[in-house]
Amino acid sequence: MNHLRRLLALVALLLLPCLTQAQEPAVTVPIPATPGPADLITPVNPAPIPIDEALRGRLRPMGKPARKVILVILDGLAASGLTFARALSPRESIELDRFPIVGRVIGKPPQGEVNDSAGAASALATGYPGPIKRLAVDELGRPRRTLFEEARQRGFKVGLISDTRLTHATPAAFGAHVTDRDEEAEAARQLVQSGFDLMLSGGIKYFLPAEEGGMQPIGRNLLTEAAAAGYTVVKTRTELAQAVSRNAGRVLGLFSHSFLPFTYDPAFRQTPTLAELTAAALALLDRHPQGFLLMVEAGKIDPCLHLYDAAELVAQMHETNLALRAIADFVRTRPDALVVVVPDHGTNGLAIVESFDPERFQRLAASTMALAERLPATAPDLLPQLAATFPGVAFTEADLAFLQAASGKDYPRRLGYVVNRKLGVEFLPFQREFPKGEAYDHTGEDLFLHALGAHQGLFGGVTRQWEIPRRLAAAMGFVFP
Ligand SMILES: [Zn+2]
User: Fold this and answer.
1) What CATH superfamily is the domain 60-202+254-351+439-476?
2) How far is the CA of 117 from the centre of ligand 1 (A)?
3) Could you tell me the pTM of the whole model?
4) Could you tell me what percentage of the chain is helix, strand and coil, using 3-state DSSP and rounding each to the nearest 5?
Protein backbone atom coordinates (compact mmCIF):
# COMPACT_ATOMS: atom_id res chain seq x y z
CA MET A 1 0.00 0.00 0.00
CA ASN A 2 2.81 2.34 0.98
CA HIS A 3 4.62 1.38 -2.22
CA LEU A 4 1.56 2.19 -4.30
CA ARG A 5 1.14 5.54 -2.59
CA ARG A 6 4.80 6.36 -3.15
CA LEU A 7 4.52 5.33 -6.78
CA LEU A 8 1.44 7.51 -7.28
CA ALA A 9 3.21 10.43 -5.64
CA LEU A 10 6.18 9.91 -7.96
CA VAL A 11 3.93 9.79 -11.05
CA ALA A 12 2.16 12.96 -9.89
CA LEU A 13 5.50 14.65 -9.34
CA LEU A 14 6.67 13.70 -12.83
CA LEU A 15 3.40 14.88 -14.39
CA LEU A 16 3.31 18.14 -12.49
CA PRO A 17 5.49 20.17 -14.87
CA CYS A 18 3.36 19.02 -17.83
CA LEU A 19 0.15 19.92 -16.01
CA THR A 20 1.29 23.37 -14.97
CA GLN A 21 2.65 23.99 -18.45
CA ALA A 22 -0.70 23.09 -19.96
CA GLN A 23 -2.39 25.72 -17.80
CA GLU A 24 -0.09 28.51 -18.91
CA PRO A 25 -1.30 30.52 -21.92
CA ALA A 26 0.68 28.58 -24.49
CA VAL A 27 2.65 30.97 -26.65
CA THR A 28 5.18 29.88 -29.18
CA VAL A 29 7.29 32.65 -30.57
CA PRO A 30 9.48 31.27 -33.32
CA ILE A 31 11.70 34.32 -33.71
CA PRO A 32 13.83 33.52 -36.77
CA ALA A 33 16.88 31.58 -35.60
CA THR A 34 19.04 33.08 -38.31
CA PRO A 35 18.00 36.66 -38.90
CA GLY A 36 17.50 37.51 -42.55
CA PRO A 37 19.28 40.38 -44.25
CA ALA A 38 16.60 42.80 -43.06
CA ASP A 39 17.26 41.90 -39.48
CA LEU A 40 20.85 43.04 -39.10
CA ILE A 41 21.32 44.88 -35.87
CA THR A 42 22.89 47.86 -37.60
CA PRO A 43 21.70 47.91 -41.21
CA VAL A 44 24.19 49.57 -43.52
CA ASN A 45 21.51 51.20 -45.63
CA PRO A 46 18.17 50.85 -43.93
CA ALA A 47 16.11 53.29 -45.99
CA PRO A 48 13.57 51.87 -46.36
CA ILE A 49 13.95 48.60 -44.49
CA PRO A 50 12.05 46.00 -46.53
CA ILE A 51 9.39 43.85 -44.94
CA ASP A 52 11.08 41.25 -42.83
CA GLU A 53 9.74 38.15 -44.53
CA ALA A 54 11.24 35.95 -41.86
CA LEU A 55 9.10 37.64 -39.26
CA ARG A 56 6.04 38.00 -41.42
CA GLY A 57 3.51 35.30 -40.77
CA ARG A 58 5.76 33.46 -38.38
CA LEU A 59 4.59 35.11 -35.20
CA ARG A 60 1.52 32.99 -34.60
CA PRO A 61 0.71 32.75 -30.93
CA MET A 62 -1.15 29.65 -29.85
CA GLY A 63 -4.33 30.00 -27.86
CA LYS A 64 -7.01 32.66 -27.98
CA PRO A 65 -6.00 36.02 -29.42
CA ALA A 66 -5.84 39.10 -27.25
CA ARG A 67 -9.01 41.14 -27.73
CA LYS A 68 -8.39 44.11 -25.45
CA VAL A 69 -5.11 45.63 -26.43
CA ILE A 70 -3.48 48.83 -25.22
CA LEU A 71 -0.31 50.40 -26.63
CA VAL A 72 1.17 53.04 -24.33
CA ILE A 73 3.73 55.50 -25.71
CA LEU A 74 5.89 57.42 -23.25
CA ASP A 75 7.05 60.37 -25.33
CA GLY A 76 10.75 61.08 -24.95
CA LEU A 77 11.37 58.83 -21.94
CA ALA A 78 14.76 57.14 -21.83
CA ALA A 79 15.38 54.68 -19.00
CA SER A 80 17.06 57.40 -16.90
CA GLY A 81 13.61 59.02 -16.55
CA LEU A 82 12.42 55.94 -14.66
CA THR A 83 15.45 56.12 -12.38
CA PHE A 84 14.75 59.79 -11.78
CA ALA A 85 11.05 59.20 -11.00
CA ARG A 86 11.87 56.34 -8.65
CA ALA A 87 14.44 58.39 -6.75
CA LEU A 88 12.01 61.25 -6.25
CA SER A 89 8.92 59.23 -5.37
CA PRO A 90 10.25 56.82 -2.74
CA ARG A 91 6.77 56.05 -1.45
CA GLU A 92 5.22 55.46 -4.87
CA SER A 93 5.78 52.14 -6.58
CA ILE A 94 6.63 52.45 -10.25
CA GLU A 95 3.96 50.47 -12.07
CA LEU A 96 6.33 49.44 -14.86
CA ASP A 97 8.59 47.78 -12.28
CA ARG A 98 5.82 45.19 -11.83
CA PHE A 99 5.49 44.24 -15.52
CA PRO A 100 6.63 40.66 -16.17
CA ILE A 101 8.06 41.13 -19.67
CA VAL A 102 10.82 43.59 -20.43
CA GLY A 103 12.32 44.02 -23.87
CA ARG A 104 14.65 46.32 -25.69
CA VAL A 105 13.68 48.31 -28.77
CA ILE A 106 15.93 49.58 -31.55
CA GLY A 107 14.31 52.87 -32.46
CA LYS A 108 16.52 53.77 -35.39
CA PRO A 109 14.82 55.85 -38.11
CA PRO A 110 15.70 55.25 -41.80
CA GLN A 111 18.34 58.01 -41.75
CA GLY A 112 20.77 58.50 -38.87
CA GLU A 113 20.26 57.27 -35.34
CA VAL A 114 17.94 59.89 -33.85
CA ASN A 115 14.18 59.70 -34.21
CA ASP A 116 11.38 62.20 -33.72
CA SER A 117 7.85 61.53 -32.53
CA ALA A 118 6.48 61.47 -36.08
CA GLY A 119 8.95 58.89 -37.37
CA ALA A 120 8.62 56.73 -34.27
CA ALA A 121 4.82 56.88 -34.17
CA SER A 122 4.70 56.06 -37.88
CA ALA A 123 6.86 52.98 -37.23
CA LEU A 124 4.65 51.96 -34.31
CA ALA A 125 1.50 52.59 -36.35
CA THR A 126 2.37 51.17 -39.77
CA GLY A 127 4.99 48.48 -39.27
CA TYR A 128 7.53 50.36 -41.40
CA PRO A 129 10.26 52.70 -40.17
CA GLY A 130 8.89 56.16 -40.80
CA PRO A 131 10.96 59.02 -42.10
CA ILE A 132 11.07 61.66 -39.40
CA LYS A 133 8.64 64.58 -39.60
CA ARG A 134 6.04 62.55 -41.60
CA LEU A 135 2.95 60.73 -40.38
CA ALA A 136 2.10 57.24 -41.68
CA VAL A 137 3.21 57.80 -45.26
CA ASP A 138 5.86 56.05 -47.35
CA GLU A 139 8.93 57.70 -48.84
CA LEU A 140 6.83 58.97 -51.77
CA GLY A 141 4.20 60.46 -49.45
CA ARG A 142 1.60 57.79 -50.10
CA PRO A 143 -0.51 56.76 -47.07
CA ARG A 144 0.53 53.62 -45.26
CA ARG A 145 -2.27 51.71 -43.60
CA THR A 146 -2.01 51.74 -39.82
CA LEU A 147 -2.56 48.85 -37.44
CA PHE A 148 -5.48 50.79 -36.01
CA GLU A 149 -7.16 51.17 -39.40
CA GLU A 150 -6.60 47.45 -40.01
CA ALA A 151 -7.98 46.47 -36.59
CA ARG A 152 -11.04 48.64 -37.15
CA GLN A 153 -11.70 46.85 -40.46
CA ARG A 154 -11.44 43.59 -38.55
CA GLY A 155 -14.16 44.62 -36.10
CA PHE A 156 -12.10 45.92 -33.20
CA LYS A 157 -13.11 49.21 -31.65
CA VAL A 158 -10.20 51.63 -31.88
CA GLY A 159 -9.29 54.61 -29.74
CA LEU A 160 -6.60 57.25 -29.29
CA ILE A 161 -5.72 59.13 -26.11
CA SER A 162 -3.05 61.78 -25.70
CA ASP A 163 -2.42 64.45 -23.11
CA THR A 164 -0.93 66.65 -25.86
CA ARG A 165 -3.06 67.47 -28.92
CA LEU A 166 -5.03 64.89 -30.89
CA THR A 167 -3.36 66.26 -34.02
CA HIS A 168 0.15 66.14 -32.53
CA ALA A 169 2.57 63.71 -34.15
CA THR A 170 2.17 60.70 -31.86
CA PRO A 171 -1.62 60.27 -31.76
CA ALA A 172 -2.19 61.59 -35.30
CA ALA A 173 0.13 59.01 -36.90
CA PHE A 174 -2.33 56.24 -35.97
CA GLY A 175 -5.28 57.71 -37.89
CA ALA A 176 -4.00 60.41 -40.26
CA HIS A 177 -1.55 60.49 -43.15
CA VAL A 178 0.34 63.71 -43.86
CA THR A 179 3.76 64.42 -45.32
CA ASP A 180 4.50 67.04 -42.66
CA ARG A 181 3.66 66.64 -38.99
CA ASP A 182 2.91 70.36 -38.83
CA GLU A 183 -0.13 69.91 -41.10
CA GLU A 184 -2.27 69.58 -38.00
CA ALA A 185 -5.40 71.13 -39.51
CA GLU A 186 -5.34 68.49 -42.25
CA ALA A 187 -4.67 65.76 -39.66
CA ALA A 188 -7.73 66.99 -37.74
CA ARG A 189 -9.92 66.69 -40.85
CA GLN A 190 -8.66 63.15 -41.46
CA LEU A 191 -9.12 62.10 -37.83
CA VAL A 192 -12.74 63.27 -37.81
CA GLN A 193 -13.31 61.11 -40.89
CA SER A 194 -11.32 58.15 -39.53
CA GLY A 195 -14.30 56.37 -38.04
CA PHE A 196 -12.23 55.73 -34.90
CA ASP A 197 -14.54 55.06 -31.98
CA LEU A 198 -12.88 57.11 -29.30
CA MET A 199 -10.49 60.06 -29.39
CA LEU A 200 -9.66 61.94 -26.18
CA SER A 201 -7.02 64.66 -26.09
CA GLY A 202 -6.36 68.40 -26.32
CA GLY A 203 -5.93 70.73 -29.28
CA ILE A 204 -9.51 71.83 -29.92
CA LYS A 205 -8.17 74.83 -31.86
CA TYR A 206 -7.38 72.58 -34.82
CA PHE A 207 -11.04 71.58 -35.03
CA LEU A 208 -12.56 75.06 -34.87
CA PRO A 209 -13.02 77.56 -37.72
CA ALA A 210 -10.88 80.70 -37.96
CA GLU A 211 -13.73 82.94 -36.80
CA GLU A 212 -13.75 81.06 -33.48
CA GLY A 213 -9.99 81.36 -33.08
CA GLY A 214 -9.38 77.99 -34.68
CA MET A 215 -7.07 76.69 -37.39
CA GLN A 216 -9.73 75.48 -39.84
CA PRO A 217 -10.87 77.71 -42.71
CA ILE A 218 -13.72 80.16 -42.10
CA GLY A 219 -17.02 78.32 -41.85
CA ARG A 220 -15.52 74.86 -41.30
CA ASN A 221 -16.24 73.49 -37.84
CA LEU A 222 -14.99 69.94 -37.39
CA LEU A 223 -16.85 69.53 -34.11
CA THR A 224 -20.14 70.01 -36.00
CA GLU A 225 -18.92 67.59 -38.66
CA ALA A 226 -17.97 65.04 -36.00
CA ALA A 227 -21.39 65.31 -34.37
CA ALA A 228 -23.03 64.80 -37.78
CA ALA A 229 -20.84 61.70 -38.22
CA GLY A 230 -22.25 60.23 -35.00
CA TYR A 231 -19.68 61.38 -32.44
CA THR A 232 -20.67 62.54 -29.00
CA VAL A 233 -18.44 65.62 -28.69
CA VAL A 234 -17.32 66.39 -25.13
CA LYS A 235 -15.17 69.22 -23.77
CA THR A 236 -15.29 68.82 -20.00
CA ARG A 237 -14.80 66.19 -17.33
CA THR A 238 -18.55 66.21 -16.59
CA GLU A 239 -19.50 65.74 -20.23
CA LEU A 240 -17.03 62.86 -20.50
CA ALA A 241 -18.54 61.16 -17.44
CA GLN A 242 -22.01 61.60 -18.95
CA ALA A 243 -20.87 60.08 -22.24
CA VAL A 244 -19.51 57.07 -20.34
CA SER A 245 -22.67 56.59 -18.28
CA ARG A 246 -24.87 56.98 -21.39
CA ASN A 247 -22.63 54.41 -23.13
CA ALA A 248 -22.03 56.69 -26.09
CA GLY A 249 -21.08 54.90 -29.29
CA ARG A 250 -18.40 57.22 -30.65
CA VAL A 251 -16.75 59.88 -28.52
CA LEU A 252 -14.57 62.81 -29.55
CA GLY A 253 -13.27 64.55 -26.42
CA LEU A 254 -11.15 67.70 -26.73
CA PHE A 255 -10.46 69.27 -23.37
CA SER A 256 -8.14 72.20 -24.04
CA HIS A 257 -7.08 74.73 -26.64
CA SER A 258 -3.70 73.07 -27.17
CA PHE A 259 -1.86 70.54 -24.92
CA LEU A 260 -3.76 69.42 -21.82
CA PRO A 261 -2.46 71.66 -19.01
CA PHE A 262 0.78 70.94 -17.18
CA THR A 263 0.37 70.22 -13.49
CA TYR A 264 1.59 73.68 -12.36
CA ASP A 265 -1.17 75.33 -14.46
CA PRO A 266 -4.31 76.14 -12.39
CA ALA A 267 -6.35 74.77 -15.35
CA PHE A 268 -4.89 71.33 -14.53
CA ARG A 269 -7.47 70.83 -11.77
CA GLN A 270 -10.39 71.57 -14.09
CA THR A 271 -9.20 69.27 -16.85
CA PRO A 272 -9.43 65.48 -16.94
CA THR A 273 -6.02 63.87 -16.39
CA LEU A 274 -4.39 61.19 -18.50
CA ALA A 275 -5.46 58.58 -15.94
CA GLU A 276 -9.06 59.81 -16.02
CA LEU A 277 -9.17 59.77 -19.82
CA THR A 278 -7.70 56.27 -19.79
CA ALA A 279 -10.19 54.98 -17.21
CA ALA A 280 -13.09 56.48 -19.16
CA ALA A 281 -11.85 54.90 -22.39
CA LEU A 282 -11.41 51.48 -20.79
CA ALA A 283 -14.91 51.66 -19.30
CA LEU A 284 -16.42 52.50 -22.69
CA LEU A 285 -14.39 50.12 -24.81
CA ASP A 286 -14.62 47.16 -22.41
CA ARG A 287 -18.33 46.90 -23.17
CA HIS A 288 -17.72 45.82 -26.74
CA PRO A 289 -17.58 42.03 -27.14
CA GLN A 290 -15.57 42.39 -30.36
CA GLY A 291 -12.61 43.83 -28.44
CA PHE A 292 -10.58 46.98 -28.90
CA LEU A 293 -7.21 48.50 -29.66
CA LEU A 294 -6.33 51.66 -27.74
CA MET A 295 -3.27 53.92 -27.95
CA VAL A 296 -2.46 56.02 -24.89
CA GLU A 297 0.26 58.66 -25.15
CA ALA A 298 1.89 60.20 -22.08
CA GLY A 299 3.02 63.07 -24.23
CA LYS A 300 4.08 65.78 -21.80
CA ILE A 301 7.21 63.99 -20.61
CA ASP A 302 8.96 65.07 -23.80
CA PRO A 303 8.27 68.84 -23.49
CA CYS A 304 9.42 68.78 -19.84
CA LEU A 305 12.71 67.31 -21.04
CA HIS A 306 13.00 69.77 -23.95
CA LEU A 307 12.42 72.60 -21.49
CA TYR A 308 14.86 71.24 -18.86
CA ASP A 309 11.98 71.29 -16.33
CA ALA A 310 12.87 68.45 -13.97
CA ALA A 311 10.24 69.28 -11.33
CA GLU A 312 7.40 69.19 -13.86
CA LEU A 313 8.92 65.99 -15.23
CA VAL A 314 8.48 64.38 -11.80
CA ALA A 315 4.83 65.47 -11.82
CA GLN A 316 4.31 64.10 -15.32
CA MET A 317 5.91 60.80 -14.35
CA HIS A 318 3.45 60.60 -11.45
CA GLU A 319 0.49 61.26 -13.79
CA THR A 320 1.82 58.64 -16.19
CA ASN A 321 2.21 56.15 -13.36
CA LEU A 322 -1.44 56.62 -12.39
CA ALA A 323 -2.56 55.99 -15.97
CA LEU A 324 -0.35 52.89 -16.18
CA ARG A 325 -1.79 51.62 -12.90
CA ALA A 326 -5.36 51.98 -14.24
CA ILE A 327 -4.35 50.05 -17.36
CA ALA A 328 -2.41 47.35 -15.51
CA ASP A 329 -5.31 46.80 -13.08
CA PHE A 330 -7.63 46.44 -16.07
CA VAL A 331 -5.32 43.99 -17.85
CA ARG A 332 -4.64 41.85 -14.78
CA THR A 333 -8.34 41.13 -14.33
CA ARG A 334 -9.06 40.11 -17.94
CA PRO A 335 -7.61 37.00 -19.59
CA ASP A 336 -7.79 38.48 -23.10
CA ALA A 337 -6.20 41.86 -22.34
CA LEU A 338 -2.66 42.96 -23.20
CA VAL A 339 -0.71 46.15 -22.62
CA VAL A 340 2.60 47.07 -24.25
CA VAL A 341 4.47 50.16 -23.08
CA VAL A 342 7.24 51.82 -25.12
CA PRO A 343 8.97 55.19 -25.32
CA ASP A 344 9.39 56.62 -28.83
CA HIS A 345 12.91 58.10 -28.45
CA GLY A 346 15.07 59.70 -25.76
CA THR A 347 14.92 63.45 -25.20
CA ASN A 348 17.64 65.82 -24.06
CA GLY A 349 19.88 63.27 -22.40
CA LEU A 350 18.56 63.39 -18.86
CA ALA A 351 21.39 62.02 -16.74
CA ILE A 352 21.48 61.12 -13.07
CA VAL A 353 24.99 62.08 -12.00
CA GLU A 354 26.78 61.35 -8.77
CA SER A 355 26.17 64.80 -7.30
CA PHE A 356 22.38 64.35 -7.60
CA ASP A 357 20.76 64.43 -4.17
CA PRO A 358 17.06 63.52 -4.35
CA GLU A 359 16.32 65.01 -0.92
CA ARG A 360 17.86 68.35 -1.83
CA PHE A 361 16.08 68.30 -5.17
CA GLN A 362 12.75 67.56 -3.53
CA ARG A 363 13.29 70.35 -1.03
CA LEU A 364 14.27 73.00 -3.57
CA ALA A 365 12.90 72.16 -7.00
CA ALA A 366 10.01 74.02 -8.57
CA SER A 367 8.68 73.93 -12.11
CA THR A 368 10.87 76.27 -14.14
CA MET A 369 8.14 76.63 -16.79
CA ALA A 370 5.90 78.01 -14.05
CA LEU A 371 8.72 80.14 -12.66
CA ALA A 372 9.41 81.63 -16.10
CA GLU A 373 5.81 82.84 -16.21
CA ARG A 374 6.03 84.77 -12.97
CA LEU A 375 9.67 85.84 -13.10
CA PRO A 376 10.47 87.30 -16.55
CA ALA A 377 14.02 87.57 -17.92
CA THR A 378 13.59 91.35 -17.87
CA ALA A 379 12.85 91.48 -14.12
CA PRO A 380 15.32 94.00 -12.63
CA ASP A 381 15.84 91.86 -9.54
CA LEU A 382 16.13 88.52 -11.36
CA LEU A 383 19.20 87.29 -9.47
CA PRO A 384 17.97 88.09 -5.93
CA GLN A 385 14.57 86.61 -6.82
CA LEU A 386 16.21 83.38 -8.00
CA ALA A 387 18.34 83.26 -4.85
CA ALA A 388 15.22 83.71 -2.73
CA THR A 389 13.34 80.99 -4.64
CA PHE A 390 16.21 78.49 -4.32
CA PRO A 391 17.85 79.15 -0.93
CA GLY A 392 21.43 77.97 -0.73
CA VAL A 393 21.87 77.77 -4.51
CA ALA A 394 24.51 80.15 -5.92
CA PHE A 395 23.56 82.10 -9.05
CA THR A 396 26.27 84.11 -10.81
CA GLU A 397 26.49 87.16 -13.05
CA ALA A 398 27.25 84.75 -15.91
CA ASP A 399 23.94 82.99 -15.21
CA LEU A 400 22.21 86.36 -15.32
CA ALA A 401 23.79 87.23 -18.67
CA PHE A 402 22.82 83.80 -20.06
CA LEU A 403 19.20 84.24 -18.94
CA GLN A 404 18.92 87.80 -20.20
CA ALA A 405 20.24 86.78 -23.63
CA ALA A 406 17.03 84.78 -24.12
CA SER A 407 14.55 85.53 -26.83
CA GLY A 408 11.06 85.35 -25.28
CA LYS A 409 10.38 81.74 -26.30
CA ASP A 410 13.81 80.59 -25.26
CA TYR A 411 13.66 81.86 -21.72
CA PRO A 412 11.89 78.91 -19.99
CA ARG A 413 14.50 76.57 -21.48
CA ARG A 414 17.38 78.74 -20.33
CA LEU A 415 15.89 79.09 -16.87
CA GLY A 416 15.35 75.33 -16.64
CA TYR A 417 18.90 74.67 -17.79
CA VAL A 418 20.48 77.03 -15.26
CA VAL A 419 18.35 76.02 -12.29
CA ASN A 420 18.28 72.24 -12.76
CA ARG A 421 22.01 71.88 -13.33
CA LYS A 422 22.49 73.58 -9.98
CA LEU A 423 20.12 71.02 -8.46
CA GLY A 424 22.28 68.18 -9.80
CA VAL A 425 20.13 67.19 -12.79
CA GLU A 426 22.18 67.06 -15.98
CA PHE A 427 20.92 67.28 -19.54
CA LEU A 428 22.50 67.76 -22.95
CA PRO A 429 24.30 71.11 -23.17
CA PHE A 430 22.06 74.06 -23.93
CA GLN A 431 24.04 75.28 -26.92
CA ARG A 432 25.22 72.64 -29.32
CA GLU A 433 27.54 72.75 -32.26
CA PHE A 434 25.02 71.81 -34.94
CA PRO A 435 22.01 73.76 -36.18
CA LYS A 436 18.59 72.64 -34.99
CA GLY A 437 17.03 69.78 -36.96
CA GLU A 438 13.69 68.04 -36.68
CA ALA A 439 14.90 65.78 -33.90
CA TYR A 440 16.85 68.46 -32.03
CA ASP A 441 17.29 67.63 -28.33
CA HIS A 442 16.43 64.00 -29.04
CA THR A 443 18.90 61.20 -28.50
CA GLY A 444 19.59 57.97 -30.35
CA GLU A 445 19.57 55.10 -27.89
CA ASP A 446 18.04 51.69 -27.34
CA LEU A 447 14.64 51.96 -25.69
CA PHE A 448 12.89 49.81 -23.12
CA LEU A 449 9.64 47.92 -23.61
CA HIS A 450 7.30 46.52 -20.96
CA ALA A 451 4.47 44.08 -21.60
CA LEU A 452 1.77 42.54 -19.45
CA GLY A 453 -1.14 40.28 -20.31
CA ALA A 454 -2.26 37.89 -23.02
CA HIS A 455 0.64 36.82 -25.28
CA GLN A 456 3.04 39.03 -23.39
CA GLY A 457 5.81 36.63 -24.41
CA LEU A 458 5.71 38.03 -27.94
CA PHE A 459 7.37 41.19 -26.69
CA GLY A 460 10.50 39.99 -24.92
CA GLY A 461 13.98 40.19 -26.36
CA VAL A 462 15.21 42.76 -28.83
CA THR A 463 12.67 44.26 -31.21
CA ARG A 464 12.81 46.91 -33.86
CA GLN A 465 10.34 49.71 -33.34
CA TRP A 466 8.54 48.90 -36.58
CA GLU A 467 8.16 45.24 -35.56
CA ILE A 468 5.98 46.17 -32.61
CA PRO A 469 2.71 46.58 -34.59
CA ARG A 470 3.47 43.25 -36.28
CA ARG A 471 3.76 41.63 -32.88
CA LEU A 472 0.62 43.36 -31.64
CA ALA A 473 -1.24 42.04 -34.70
CA ALA A 474 0.11 38.57 -34.00
CA ALA A 475 -1.18 38.79 -30.42
CA MET A 476 -4.55 39.85 -31.82
CA GLY A 477 -4.63 36.90 -34.19
CA PHE A 478 -3.83 38.39 -37.58
CA VAL A 479 -0.88 39.30 -39.77
CA PHE A 480 -0.02 42.97 -40.28
CA PRO A 481 1.00 44.68 -42.46
ZN1 LIG B 1 8.35 61.91 -29.17
Assistant:
1) Alkaline Phosphatase, subunit A (3.40.720.10)
2) 3
3) 0.88
4) 40, 15, 45
